[in-house]
Design goal:
about 300 residues, Rossmann fold, about 30% helix, about 15% strand
């Protein structure tokens, strides 16, 4: 990632003159979440993986300064600084995309991807552009942040299916760091269980906030995405109205791939299982709910004691 240029959201047009940008390719713009960094593990993995394919223009939206917790600490820094900044930065990105569109960038070839609070940044960008007559082609939300966007204290409107022509959301820590409601065009639920929002292989217990152990399930969203870019058919998901419907299936009525190969005509909820360690994808075997049946039965027995 040594060959790059930096430009301001307020003056984005130099991007179109950069030799790194091929107007014949789709453009993927990625951003991180609260307290994220341009050289953080998620950003590095996602950017390097997409760059290695050579199939897309790759752009990073760097809002590290605005995403800091600062002296306020993690909870207050999130609520009082990062969340308001996410809206402002997202709207600035939306305005920049309109400027780029007017300068010749094809909006139908734009794919926004954001992790955690970054997913809502992309939502604000998409909503801003749509309200001004330009609709983003696709937004991928990697376990969009739940705090202040869902539940009793929800005060913000985050990523939903209206933000782009196609919105796919990968929920890996629902009800905890990630949202727990279906809000995309397609909502993907790897290893879903109504009893917890944990991914297999992640440690259970009480950990300090924002440590790797604490974020393990939340971070699986970008880890699954990275693997899917390397192998587009590694994650297959089954269509089902609900988790219980999926549990009762012997064979799914319809399936899609998670990731770039997702069928953009698909709608609704999709469920699948993964391995507990890399490679996570199980292909066609992942659409079978047998492992989740065992988890559900075990959880039900425990709840009766």
């Amino acid at each position: 990632m040594d060959n790059y240029m930096i430009t301001s959201l307020r003056n984005p047009t130099p991007l179109l003159g950069d030799p790194c940008i091929d107007r014949n390719l789709r453009t993927m713009i990625y951003t991180f979440g609260y307290r994220g960094k341009p050289n953080g593990p998620a950003t590095t993995a996602v950017l390097q993986t997409y760059l290695s394919t050579g199939k897309k223009n790759v752009i990073l939206l760097d809002w590290q300064e605005e995403a800091r917790s600062g002296l306020l600490g993690i909870p207050l820094g999130y609520a009082l600084s990062a969340v308001p900044n996410a809206k402002r930065i997202g709207q600035e990105l939306g305005a920049a995309l309109i400027t780029l569109s007017q300068a010749g960038l094809n909006m139908s070839e734009i794919h926004l991807t954001g992790h955690s609070l970054g997913a809502h940044v992309m939502a604000y960008a998409g909503r801003w552009a749509r309200e001004r007559g330009q609709v983003i082609s696709r937004i991928t939300g990697l376990d969009p942040a739940r705090a202040l966007f869902e539940g009793t204290f929800a005060i913000k409107s985050g990523l939903d299916r209206t933000c782009a022509k196609f919105v796919d959301i990968i929920h890996t820590n629902p009800g905890n760091y990630g949202t727990s409601k279906s809000s995309g065009t397609v909502d993907l639920w790897p290893n879903y269980s109504p009893d917890d929002g944990m991914q297999p292989g992640c440690p259970r217990g009480s950990y300090s906030m924002f440590t790797p152990e604490d974020l393990c399930s939340h971070d699986r969203s970008w880890r699954y995405l990275v693997e899917s870019v390397h192998n587009g058919t590694s994650f297959m998901a089954a269509s089902a109205d609900s988790f219980n419907t999926w549990l009762g299936m012997d064979s799914p009525p319809a399936t899609i791939y998670m990731g770039d190969l997702a069928n953009t005509r698909a709608r609704g909820n999709f469920f699948f299982t993964t391995n507990s360690q890399p490679p996570y994808g199980k292909g066609m075997m992942g659409v079978l709910p047998s492992g989740q049946r065992a988890r559900r039965n075990s959880a039900s027995i425990i709840s009766l004691n």
